[in-house]
Protein 1
Amino acid sequence: MDILLAIGTRKGLWLARSSDRRNWEISGPQFPVADVKAVAIDTRRETPGLLAGVLNSHFGPTMVTSDDLGATWSEPDDAPIAFPADTEAALEGVWQLRPGPAAEPDVVYAGVEPSALFRSTDGGRTFELVRGLWDHPHRTEWFPGGGGKALHTIIPHPQDANRMAVAMSTGGVYQTVDGGQSWKPTNTGITAEFLPEPPEYGQCVHKVAAHPSEPDRMYLQNHGGVFRSVDAGQTWQSIADGVPDDFGFPMVAHPHRPGVIYNFPLTASMMRFPPKGRCAVYRSENGGDSWTELSDGLPEQGFWSAVMRDAMCADDADPAGIYFGSRNGEVYASADEGDHWRLVADHLPDVLCVRAAVIG
Amino acid sequence: MSVVATVRLPSVLRPDAGGAAELEVSGATLGAVLDEIGMRFPALERRLRDESGALRRYVNFYVDGEECRRLGGTAAALGPGAEVMVIPSVAGG
């Protein structure tokens, strides 16, 4: 088994390869000095494809792809993701790249800043704006969270190509059931501590995850609050009992075991470090009813860092590997679903995203 | 008669111009020059301005020695034989 771990940072992309998920061969940086917030490993084809959103502070954002596992990258002459002229908007960054369901092997979605969804039907070479969401009357009322006004979460329905959930900071969760033509906010029960009353939309949702075999059960890390929905997002209930604090950024679903989820709690609201500086992932094996701290092999103290919304992921092996990277440039991997951890890399720039998959 | 300007590129952008250090580009304004660059080298153009036409904030364009933003930005007029130097400004860390 050969695993590829892609590590996007504020100043470039690193790639790590391992056959045992304990010893890693690391290469990089690629795209040095560029902010790499979004990486995807498209495992729907024989040789997995890599896609990355790359933001150069001088020369702007773009998207690149690789057909040889990151040895070489290509970028079309014309911008792969660009706002149409009539929108009078300009791409500020790519926050999320998400291959579509298996039944649509050439479909790739991109979530971008300013908040918008783009769709590709050629494997990620070119994208078109999803107009139904851009034209939503709420759009003018979405405002930037701390990191910018971006669409950062895309969950295509695994069986129904017309259904999809997205999440934005701020804005919250929106869903379509008609292939993106119309979208409704689905935030009932999600709190917004920065507003006097919970709104219909406008929440600062940080990440949403769902298991493909149970797409109507969704798990959400909010800007304050951890939530679960069992009715496809129509209503949300707190599952924060059992985590040391309800603030955090990532939420990851186990690739094979429905109801198994991971997050990385931070002390709310002004600290935003792990409680007591103790580095720990939390896992629930019952959809959030109870949580277990996973810290074997992680720094027990002095970890004054944080894990960003896309800087935690699972691979698709069995048992699953779990990975996270931190703002202090450390990357950890667990080969046994989070029970034990090992350092993969340190002294990297701020880690913004990690993605891992079996590539052979 | 169309104006032909010389656009001088920093080394980091030359791969997007087929390796050229400078380009001869016709256009009576900086915007018109960028339009032609967009036709000839679209990947270079989008390093210089976004799809809404706004110049990249951290790229400076010196038109005969004067930064274009003091000359009207993309409306800056170019005379015969004008020189446009593209210089990335201070950014990053």
Protein 2
Amino acid sequence: MRMLLRLLAPLIGLAMAAAGVLIVIEVIAAWLRRNVVTGLVVPWHHWRTAIENVTWEDPPVPGIAIAVAVLGLLLVLVGLLARRSHITLDGPAPEITVVTAPRVLARLIGRRVRSTEDIFSASVTVSPRKVSVLAQAFDEARPELRDTVHGRVDEMLDELPLHRRPRVAVHLQERQGPR
Amino acid sequence: MTTPVTHGSKSGRPKIPEATLRKRARAALARSAAVDRALAVLVGLVLLAAGTLVALLSYGVFGTGRAARPVLDPLIVDGLRAQPDAFRLVSIAVGVLLVIVGLTWAARSLRPERHPDLVLDGGPDTAIVISSSAAADAVAAQAGGIPGVRRARARMVGTDEVPALRVTLWLADDADIRDVLTRLDDEVLAAARTSLGLTALPVAVRLELDVSAHPPRVA
């Protein structure tokens, strides 16, 4: 989302500047050329004739309004969601800030969980507040396997100098078929 | 009452509070997108409000009579004609404001990030300049030698007055992260601070896993 914002920001800025330039040019041109009804760059007299004959309830107006509102909503979402998403770790000194991406933590935990006996595969989702592990166990797995996996994840988290320890949720699925 | 922890300087430079160092280190993590985000949200809210109000007007929420009026209302045209100079001046002011905000925003977004050189005090008539790339490359080379670190990249960021360091470490899967960070501080950053003559150097470290080295598929 930050990349999208980086792309959109200069485009919107340039569009705003271009609109401003056109407004200034047209207003000054209309001011100086009082007897001329045509626009210098923008055919605003055609537009004026058109919108004088269109009412608010006529077909293109609601559609355009909804499109503008949707565009605005998307911009708001891009602005709000373009936050840094990272896991903060405690640095060895106050002047050192250490972060890592959630996918890095997910990969470390996933590797640790998959190395557990009786676990066939695992998918891990990590956010700064929560770690969710969905592990597939071979059938006839031990009943305490869930606790074992939970312990492995806790062990992994203990090894990291996490600034804020996320909650851990482990879900086990039994895999059907031969081992 | 507690006093903030400060970092002293053997050269007698002013002490920098710990909170300031933390703030500078956090700021060095990535280029700030706060202005871009704020302006995007602001423009988005304006468009959302305008679009929603016009849609409500079109669907007759504010009265069917209003919805049946032309978009360019004769009442508004008459009002503008009554004060033509005021309308023109306001329009020009709005246009100039759009140009200033738009160009400032675009220029700020497109401007490359600063990588400040470090200026060391070599005496009354001498200034020793270490280029940002030289300083950063030296740190990266040393950091790359820490056990568990496969690759390292460093960049000087911040300003000439307040430089900071951004370090990215690509770790091996079995790296001991606590040990890597301790060694980075003790062996690399301490040496960098000493050799660059800096009292304190805010550092932002980003940890990644090195995925370029895959284990062999067939033993």
Protein 3
Amino acid sequence: MYKIAIMGESDSIYGFATLGLDTFPVDNAESAQKTLRNLAESDYAVVYVTENTASGIQNEIVRYSEQKLPAIILVPGVSGNTGDGVRNVSKSVEQAVGSDIIFGS
Amino acid sequence: MASKTVTATRMELTRLKRKLVTTRRGHKLLKDKRDELMRQFLSMVRENMELRKKVEAGLAAANKNFVLAKSTMSEEAVNVAFMTPKQEVSLEVSEKNIMSVDIPVFEYKTRTSDPNDIYSYGFAFTSSDLDDAVKSLSDLLPDMLKLAEIEKACQLMAAEIEKTRRRVNALEHVIIPETEAGIKMITMKLDENERSTQIRLMKVKDMLLEDAHHYSEREA
């Protein structure tokens, strides 16, 4: 039985607690990295990370992208959409095809 | 191209020929795998992008609702309202195999059966904006989970495609030409050996005949 976590600035994530997701407020890259590692090792299958938090721990997130679990998914936070999530999708196209032929501008 | 030194023997030739057949078959199979993976990946990644845009728009709206709700309530009241969540979600993870890539499939279960049973607070001390915000978020949850599933699948498939593509290219541009060059070299060497043996035999025969019949003396 797996659980779902959401990690990011507390303002962006507190609402998810009502849905039954486990919220993990973090306020700097260092604690974000530590939290993410802990989450990946315990039984969380999906970890949503706000884009702002994710931008500080890119390397850590890439590490999990080729593992089956957990799925680390970027979501926009309360401060607005930075476009990182969309960029990540384009990046996987680039990885597979060699260049972004679908969403490239 | 043939940078490797091959020993020019018949045994080596048979070995190389056999290797070439296997390599060709492997190359064809891998190429088919790559093409099929790519086809599935492209349709999946399109879906991924659409879903992501939908989720991001939904989240932006939900966040707006939360900001509105917070503006009419005190920080403490909001914190108290969310202190003890009523609902709990758990995930069942199963696996699906697409072209030898294991991708996770999520199925979620909520603790209470009523999907509207999400408000973890009494309605007396909270604003109605908060209800809207929570509702909008809860409507978004199925899509968010679907997004997680698809995005993970895309990441895994992209990695697999990259690997397969490298293998195909290595076979096509390195292993196969190298083997072919090796085979060519050995055949030429063996042919050359055969010719020189032939010439040597002819020469020896000439010498033997010369010894027996003394042609050159008779001509003189």
